[in-house]
């Protein structure tokens, strides 16, 4: 097993794991547990279910739900020290996790899968609200009017009620059908130049 100094130098890549549909969160929990108990924390880093928060307006009320973008798939960030590929040990741990049926991009017969391209990862992270971009520094104040430039309230104006610089989010109220409706927006989803 590589020591801590070596893991800082190891390249990382995202792989797509195929699971039984509806078992994505169970696989995520199982894999996180196996990573710790089998001492693989230096080769398997993050495990994500590709989901996004979706807001809909029903009967004048905004309802928020979590939608799974790709049912039957889980994303796993792994070390790739072997010419851009994962180690045999990491492949074995993930492949033999209960609920996992295989890797996307594997050609079968024990072959190792291809990792996602960086632009694919950026697109998925953005959809999940986990942009890997540099932090945006906005000059915002509570009570300020903003214009929403993305999402279900695109084109509408809102009033800032709270600012979370760490999460890069604002809580704002938007007028929907004559009622003030609270919503959370990312810094990239708003324009302060009105």
Tell me what you see in this structure.
- By secondary structure, the protein is of the alpha+beta class.
- It folds into two domains: 11-128, Alpha-Beta Plaits (2-Layer Sandwich), CATH 3.30.70; 144-191, SH3 type barrels (Roll).
- Helix content is 20%, strand content 36%.
- The chain is built from four helices and eleven strands.
- The chain has helices at 4-9, 24-37, 88-95, 118-127, and strands at 12-19, 44-48, 51-58, 61-68, 73-79, 100-103, 145-148, 157-164, 169-176, 179-186, 190-191.
- The protein has a five-stranded antiparallel β-sheet with strand order 10-9-8-7-11, with no helix packed on it. It has a four-stranded antiparallel β-sheet with strand order 2-5-1-6, with helices on one face. It has a two-stranded antiparallel ribbon with strand order 3-4.
- The longest helix has 14 residues, at 24-37.
- It is elongated, with a radius of gyration of 20 Å.
- The chain starts with a helix and ends with a strand.
- Residues 1-8 have low confidence and may be disordered.
- Keywords: Transcription, Transcription antitermination, Transcription regulation, Transcription termination.
- InterPro entries: KOW (IPR005824), NGN (IPR047050), NGN-like_dom (IPR006645), NGN_dom_sf (IPR036735), NusG-like (IPR043425), Rib_uL2_dom2 (IPR014722), Transcrpt_antiterm_NusG (IPR001062), Translation_prot_SH3-like_sf (IPR008991).
- Participates in transcription elongation, termination and antitermination.
């Amino acid at each position: 097993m590589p020591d801590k100094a070596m893991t800082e130098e190891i390249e990382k890549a995202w792989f797509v794991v195929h699971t039984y549909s509806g078992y994505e969160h169970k696989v995520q929990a199982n894999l996180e547990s196996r990573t710790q108990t089998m001492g693989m924390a230096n080769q398997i880093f993050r495990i994500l279910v590709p989901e996004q928060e979706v807001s809909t307006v029903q009967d004048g009320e905004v309802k928020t739900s979590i939608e799974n973008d790709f049912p039957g798939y889980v994303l796993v960030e792994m070390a790739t020290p072997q010419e851009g590929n994962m180690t045999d040990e990491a492949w074995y741990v993930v492949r033999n996790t209960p609920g996992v049926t295989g890797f996307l991009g594997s050609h079968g017969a024990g072959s190792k899968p291809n990792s996602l391209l960086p632009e694919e990862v950026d697109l998925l992270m953005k959809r999940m609200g986990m942009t890997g971009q540099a932090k945006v520094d906005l000059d915002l104040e509570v009570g300020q009017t903003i214009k929403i430039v993305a999402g279900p309230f695109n084109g509408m104006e809102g009033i800032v009620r709270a600012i979370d610089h760490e999460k890069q989010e604002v809580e704002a109220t938007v007028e929907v059908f004559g009622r003030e409706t609270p919503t959370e927006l990312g810094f990239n989803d708003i324009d302060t130049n009105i």
